Amino acid sequence: MKLFSSVNDVKDVPALVAEALQLKQNPYAHQHLGKNKTLSLVFLNPSLRTRMSTQKAAMNLGMNVIVLNIDKEGWALELRDNVIMNGTTVEHIREAAGVMGEYSDIIGVRSFPGLKDREEDYSETIFNKFVEFCKVPVVSLESATRHPLQSLADLVTIEELKTKARPKVVLTWAPHIKALPQAVPNSFAEWMCRADVDFTITHPAGYELCTDFTKGAAITHNQGEALKDADFVYVKNWSAYEPYGAVTGGNEDWMLTNAKMDTLAPAAKVMHCLPVRRDLELSSEILDGPRSVVIHEAGNRVWAAQAVLKQMLETL
Ligand code: SN0
């Protein structure tokens, strides 16, 4: 694998999930693969799980890791072409990514969307420039429109915890106070549409996701109907795709509570990619109770990242 930016970069999704679960059983079996190989993790935005789990995954494979929080510690990056750099930006992405490629065998990049210009975000201009100029294999650590390492860990978690062959999985929108990216729900939808699950998306009117990611999913504005008999409920806020980045208030009753779950899906496991704002996006009674698998799910980020890095190291 030379690029991991979406599910479309994966030849065999069930095999990648199986590989992640094998690595979980035997984390240190492939230390020779990463010997004298360097992974650089470049962050243009904050991170906790992605940074730590990907570093841990690389260490399990015997790799050396460099982390650069370029938004805080690097030179101010110019991302646009054809501009005279007489303002606040100091270094162009062309040189910055090119140089990072000299120091790295694999690069991971996190580049959130601006949520202002939909065309620019959805063409993945920043991520694609890194790929173009660094000239080494690149792993997405969440780009403007996708978070594939998260979705792989989510699928691994569902595979591990499911109690029937084809579980019902529901992605539900949740309230928030800020405009958040569509990357996590886009990616989750895209992966679930490729997996052997019965998949439903529910959100208030106005929060329709880009249909490129949701082909094959059932979509409803009725949260109660969607939750009925779910095996997994995936909670996430996102801002509107149209008008792009918009947030409309007044959907506070979309937050999951034990009362809702008891009535509609008593046996369901509740997932969230984290970070989660307690009692705004998701009730603390759920997070602190037996339905929540959010910590287990975050733990699986290591095995997802390790499976992807292993497949990349094998093709270096
Ligand atoms: C990011 C998102 O894409 O929704 C990262 C998720 C892995 N989340 C946030 O930016 C949360 C910010 C907040 O203020 O709650």
TrEMBL record:
Molecular function per GO: amino acid binding; ornithine carbamoyltransferase activity
Source organism superkingdom: Bacteria
Keywords: Amino-acid biosynthesis, Arginine biosynthesis, Transferase
EC id: 2.1.3.11
Pathway: Amino-acid biosynthesis; L-arginine biosynthesis
Binding site for N(2)-succinyl-L-ornithine: E142, H176, K236, R277
Gene3D superfamilies reported in the protein's UniProt record: Aspartate/ornithine carbamoyltransferase
UniProt binding sites for carbamoyl phosphate: S47, L48, R49, T50, W75, R110, H147, P148, L149, Q150, C273, L274, R301
InterPro entries, sorted: ArgF'-like, Asp/Orn_carbamoyltranf_P-bd, Asp/Orn_carbamoylTrfase, Asp/Orn_carbamoylTrfase_sf, Asp_carbamoyltransf_Asp/Orn-bd
Family label: Belongs to the aspartate/ornithine carbamoyltransferase superfamily. SOTCase family.
Database matches in HAMAP family: SOTCase
PANTHER family reported for this sequence: ORNITHINE CARBAMOYLTRANSFERASE, MITOCHONDRIAL, ORNITHINE TRANSCARBAMYLASE, MITOCHONDRIAL
Subunit organization: Homotrimer.
The protein's name: N-succinylornithine carbamoyltransferase
Native organism: Mucilaginibacter phyllosphaerae
Lineage: Bacteria, Pseudomonadati, Bacteroidota, Sphingobacteriia, Sphingobacteriales
